[in-house]
């Protein structure tokens, strides 16, 4: 094989490498710009939202008997058990109410147990 064929092989390999790197760079720049556009749009939507209403977001957080973290260590075990069971029942009823409402909105049949008929 003559010496100039090696030069042609290396020139072709180098050209392919440079072409690949340029195309990969263009691809990454375009994806990065699209990401920045989406992030800008999302931040714009967040900025346009009114501030959240004051107060807790969940019903179980609204109870006045909400204790500070760690206070259960020194509390009466019977009282803590009763509060836990009451909270568990409130959460169960809340889930049932949401399920009944969701099924009503979708036009799905209701469970007799959910309606309190069983």
From TrEMBL:
Comp. bias regions, Basic residues:
95-106
- Indicate the transmembrane segments per the record: 6-29
* Keyword list, A-Z: Membrane, Transmembrane, Transmembrane helix
What is the protein's species of origin? Sinomonas flava
Q: What is the lineage of its organism?
A: Bacteria, Bacillati, Actinomycetota, Actinomycetes, Micrococcales
Q: Give the region (Disordered) as residue ranges.
A: 47-77, 95-118
State the name under which the record lists this protein: Uncharacterized protein
